[in-house]
Amino acid sequence: MAGDDAIKNHAAERRLFVIRTVVACGLLTLLIGLLFARIYYLQVYKHGYYETRSQDNRMRMAVVPPVRGLIFDRDGQLLANNRPAYQLEIVPEQVKGTVRQTIDRLGRIVDISDADRERFFSRLNQTPSFRGTPIKLSLTQAEVARFEVNREQFPGVDIRAGLTRHYPLGKYAAHIVGYVGGITERDLSNVDKKRYRGSSHIGKSGVELAYESALHGYPGSRVVETNASGRALRQLDETPAKAGDSLILTLDSGLQKAAYNALGDKDGAVVALDPQNGGVLALVSKPGYNPDLFVDGISHANYAKLISDPHKPLYNRALQGQYPPGSTIKPVMAIGALETGVIDPDKKVWCPGYITLPGSDHHYRDWKRSGQGWINLTQAIERSSDVYFYKLGMKLGIDDIHRYGSMFGLGHKTGIDLPRENAGIMPSREWKRGNRGQPWYPGETLITVIGQGYTTSTPLQLASMVSEIAERGHAYRPHVLKATKNPQSGEVTPYKPEALPPIQLKDERHWNTVINAMRGVIDNPHGTAHHYVGMNLKYPIAGKSGSAQVAGLPQNEVAPDLASIPYKLREHALFIAFAPIEHPKIAVAVLVEHGGGGSSVAGPIAREVIDHYLDQQSQNDSRQADNASASPSQQDS
Amino acid sequence: MSTTTANDDPSTLSEWLVYWRIDLPLAAALICGGLLGLFVLYSASGRSDTIVFDQAVRLGVGLVGMVVLAQVPPHWYRAAAPWVYLIGVLLLLATLFIGDAAMGAKRWLDLGVVRFQPSEICKLVVPLTVAAYFHHRSLPPRLSHVLVAGLIMALPVALVVQQPDLGTALLIIAGGGFALFFAGLRWRIIVLLLILGAAALPVIWFNLHDYQQQRVLTFLNPARDPLGTGYHITQSKIAIGSGGLFGKGWLNGTQAHLDFLPEADTDFVFAVYAEETGLFGVLGLIAIYLFVVARGLFIAVKSQDTFQRLTAASLSLTFFFYAFVNMGMVAGLLPVVGVPLPLISFGGTSMVMLLASFGILMSIHTHRKLLAT
């Protein structure tokens, strides 16, 4: 191809190029002229027309907020639903006078709280002035009527029918289900703002907060033709909103109520897990509160009442309360001692009423002043001997105490799918150096091995710990979600429970040793809980009591009876249990604040919860069996 | 060149520019445009710091790339063009088989580290390859040479059409076409091609995808479907028109901020700009574009061989063509094709490729041999 016959004429080619460049410039000028004429036509000649089009943009895009997903319990009982409600909205652009004046005048016919005002003004800045901003989220029928009568006086104010949230279970499940509230600026900084255009509520706590993204859904839009005052005349086009997913929780609302009631008039927490998958069957913190109060902005008076209540109803004891686990930690410590081989479970040990450490005259007491005499490991767990465990603790040492405690989840968040969980403390040498700036003292080993001292845990952690024992080291991470359901397609997506790292013992028989001892706590006549829990058992139950000291007893002082101690200084009562022993269906942790004895106070509550659940299960089983034999086609109920 | 000492400030700057082979007028205009773009994007994106930051990084990377490319002597580009062309075509082929589909079109190639559109390479390298082809041949080109040049263009165009990405295909044809035009393609052939093109319109029409047909129909009659395909154009015309002579002011455009205007920070960014800065702002932007094109054509006229001349001229005109097509489309003068507004639209590949092409222009201008003409 190189054999080009014509020789290049450089001058001619250059001339040709310059001509072409001139032509190109001409074309370019022509195109720019065309473009300029077009822009001039739009921006100058037709400016007036487009100015009006832009100002009251005839086609207005209105946001259609999505319907929030519902929350059900495991049997389809509603835990959170949507109720129709009337909202009062202000469109600032159309208001006569200032927005503040309008609100002041509105205040004379409907009740507008300071919280309403605050929320209104924080949202006002983020909303274009032709769109409505809610000033009051839920109007009573009387208020709706009063406003309708006076409507003429309030240009730019309108009532919009919407939905508001309602919690049928109220105080019983307030801490687990949580509540929604008015969206604040802070809420918006954590979410995709576009999804919240047109929405007024957002999850603030519990499941409502944890699964906000799934529950919320996606807004749609509606293109409407509007008149000069912005009122929609007719709808031109619509993209429907996508409703949020419905949630089905593992919660059993019957059990939740039963557990709440079982606590009687005491403050405390009950956590019940299904040890076979980690599902939360009940999660109670008592006292509860009425979550409906928060939905449309809680009044100052109501909020002050909740905040100043000495029983702290807003505080979620089950997840956030950190209490010394007390003797409920002993089964775990026993497993640690068996695994490391520092004790022989069958060997009897002399257990007097107290022991002292060499070089110190501090008395480490047993809860039983007279001592337990010669006992082996099983008896030590059954009777909850402190002295036996002091001796066990000395042999095991703080490093292994920490190791086995952590293995069963103490000192770590369980990772449950609920917000604001606390981790508790499983102390170690490093922990003490880091947090107290001090070395570890041998005496602290003794109180740690019986779950006192620095050790703290949440009731949820104790429930997870007892699940590990029930499942012999193969438990699941606690969770409240059972499945999500797409409201459009009806498609149900089950939640996949996450197995916790298995606890592999060198000798699997050690599980039997400890579980049998926990069974003895309840059905051995010497067991601490025998009289309170072990009567008329329908299923074999394993359990362990505990009491968490609030204030240390003065040395050499006989423990006084409960009634004579001031309430705030009384010890917390604890009980952990699971049943049935062979195929555990429920694992429970009970905490009664300032309740006193673990076996006598917390034990019966645990028993009541277990009975309620297992009775109902066996009823369901027999009903299903009946149904199956009667009409095999109707199995879905 | 200069006899003044290095202490003398102005001469230090000019010596530095000469050393780095930077053409000051071109660089200044491009930086002006790029900075203006950052301001426009801040408003168009609804005050997103991240978008502005991302774009600033791309602008920086593009400018550095431009300076690097300016160091390479022009004959290297001539030598490399056919090979890069070959690689581009192979990558296009690969895209057809293993490309990532986005919105129904396979345009992206994922190389693990980077994800890019091979068609962008072709937009740049096709005019260079045509220019390199004509370099040793006598001009105006003979019919057989024109046919070869046509084949050079047709190969990537055919592959891009398969993706399908009609807009890019047209831009590749434009780039190569400009090179042919500057090479002196005879007028009778140009007229013939125009007639052939017009005759082929019905054939093209029936091979268009449904959405492409919709776009053209909407362009011909925007009122036909004001809420569907016509929505973009209706809203962008309202945005431009309501801007008036002086605009509504930076950050005060209502069309974009109230979400009436879709794709406000990419293909339709010009509407936001016109709404907020008005006719005078538009004139300012057009002035920047014209200055860049004028400087590019000046470099082309001053350049010393066929390859450089054709390359500089066709790249400059391609730049103008992009700006014109985008503004024309947003103003409702042309049908909607996916072409970003040079220097302003949010997007990495187009910004970097654009500055790369000006790096080549700078190389051409600063490597001239100082012989008297």
Question: In brief, what are we looking at here?
Answer:
The complex is a heterodimer of chains A (637) and B (373). Chain A is an alpha+beta fold and 637 residues long.
Descriptive account of the structure:
The complex is a heterodimer of chains A (637) and B (373). Chain A is α+β, with helices and mostly antiparallel strands and 637 residues long. Chain A has 2 domains: 60-148 and 159-249, Penicillin-binding protein 2a (Domain 2) (Alpha-Beta Complex), CATH 3.90.1310; 253-483 and 491-554 and 576-622, 3-Layer(aba) Sandwich (Beta-lactamase). Chain A has 22 helices and 21 strands. Chain A is elongated and about 110 Å long. Mean pLDDT of chain A is 86; it is low at 1-5, 553-558 and 631-637. Chain B has 2 domains: 22-71 and 216-365, no CATH class; 77-207. Chain B has 373 residues and is mostly helical. In chain B, helix 4 packs parallel to helix 6 (143-162) and helix 5 (118-135) packs antiparallel against helix 6.
Average of pLDDT of chain B: 85
Q: Give the overall shape of chain B, derived from the CA principal axes.
A: globular
The percent range for helix content of chain A is 25-40%
Number of strands of chain A: 21
Quaternary structure annotation: heterodimer
Number of helical regions of chain A? 22
Measured by residues with Cβ under 8 Å of the partner chain's Cβ, the largest interface is: A-B, 42 and 48 residues
What's the count of strands of chain B? 3
Indicate the low-confidence ranges of chain A by residue numbers.
Answer: 1-5, 553-558, 631-637
End-to-end separation of chain B: 18 Å
Radius of gyration of chain A: 34 Å
Under CATH, the topology of the largest domain in chain A can be stated as Beta-lactamase
Could you say which overall geometry of chain A the principal axes of the C-alpha atoms support? Answer: elongated
Main sheet makeup of chain B: 3 strands, antiparallel
Name of the CATH architecture of the largest domain in chain A:
3-Layer(aba) Sandwich
Major β-sheet profile of chain A? 7 strands, mixed
Query: DSSP helix count of chain B?
Result: 14
Structural domain count of chain A: 2
Looking at CATH, the homologous superfamily of the largest domain in chain A is DD-peptidase/beta-lactamase superfamily
